[in-house]
Amino acid sequence: MTSEDIVLVGAPIEAGAGRRGCVMGPDAFRTAGISEALTDLGHRVRDLGNLAPEAVERVSAPLAHLKNYNDVVGWTRSLHSCAKNLANDPVFPIYLGGDHALAAGTVTGHAAAAHDLGRPLFVLWLDAHSDFNTLESTQSGNLHGTPLAFAAGLPGFDGFLGQPLTHPVDPGNIEILGVRSIDPEERRLLVKSGVGVRDMRMIDEKGIGSLLAPFLERVSAENGLLHVSLDVDFLDPEIAPAVGTTVPGGATFREAHLVMEMLHDSGLVTSLDLVELNPFLDDRGRTARLMVDLVGSLFGRRVFDRPTRSF
Asked: Is 290 inside a domain boundary?
């Protein structure tokens, strides 16, 4: 990527998660120096502040076990509109979460804009979870486990935007990398839909670079736009403790930086989610600073450019 205009958008949503704290995520990224890190790399940065959810008429959740349904609907509509608008501007949006339910709005907004541009949208989902539950299949009722199923056009989500999703992401254009916790029904839905799933065993056996490279080659060959959604729990909790859904055995520090460096080298990424940072669970800002450091790698910081510091 060359020098470009980057737009930061805060989305302090925690309605999709099972515990409090993600509402503080956007400001934690700011405090950890995300704007300064990108400016130091030669990019122009604008911070649009924090979005608010769209006001929606109170509606009952289609199923009784769904939690904070109305709040998630409001956030989805607000983020969808924001993402679609930003995708039509010559900027690179970074959405500062907030829990992963925000991707229901960001991914679908960018998919709608990609359709208008006549280009396919690809999604790289860096996460310990596939977040491919439907409203019926989710056992917890926490809606941060459903955004990718919604974005892929699975049924039952018409209430999210108040109408059927007109431009879903082709499931074959979705790549989930680093997954290590999938519900049984999610597994069935993923296989049926044809989503690419690369779990930690595959990473152990083949290496994370060799798994990512073919996906990036396909994005390039099809002139695609690439949205990256980075969940804190993609990382091993030993290095990134500030997340409410810890799953042992995640990506290492070097694996995560390699992914970001390869994404930078590809020049394909057009938008980014940073999600599930819960500062209440962090250790002196350690996770927030690591996430900012990964963003630095995505935007061109090389290994030999990094100062020595303790995490």
From this structure: yes
Token pair for 261: 């460096």
DSSP β-bridge partners for residue 129: 181
69: helix, strand or coil: helix
Domain membership flag for residue 178: yes
Torsions phi, psi of 93, nearest 5? -85, 135
Which positions are catalytic?
100, 127, 129, 131, 144, 231, 233, 276
Domain contains 270: yes
95-110 mean pLDDT: 98
pLDDT 10s digits, 199-242: 999 999 999 999 999 999 999 999 999 999 999 999 999 999 99
Question: Which has the closest alpha carbon to 282: 293, 273, 274, 290?
Answer: 290
Tell me the C-alpha to C-alpha distance, in Å, between residue 204 and each of 177, 191, 257, 311. Answer: 12, 22, 16, 24
Domain that holds residue 272: 5-305
Q: How far apart are CA 83 and CA 85, in angstroms?
A: 5
Mean pLDDT in residue range 52-66: 89
Q: Decide if 103 contacts 155 (C-beta within 8 A).
A: no
Looking at residue 233, its amino acid is D
* Average pLDDT, integer, range 149-156: 97
Tell me the backbone φ, ψ of residue 39, rounded to 5 degrees. -65, -40
**Residue 153: inside a domain:** yes
| Nearest alpha-carbon partner for 289 in 28, 6, 22 | 28
Cβ-contact 121, 227 below 8 angstroms: yes
Q: How many structural domains compose the chain?
A: 1
Q: Which two tokens stand for residue 310?
A: 């303790």
CATH number at residue 14: 3.40.800.10
Q: What is the pTM of this model?
A: 0.96
Is-contact 25 279, C-beta < 8 A? yes
Mean residue pLDDT across the chain: 94
**Tokens for 116?**
């208008």
For residue 262, count CB atoms less than 10 angstroms from its CB and return exposed for 0-12, middle for 13-18, buried for 19 or more.
Answer: middle
Of 148, 151, 189, 193, give the one whose Cα is nearest residue 172. Answer: 193
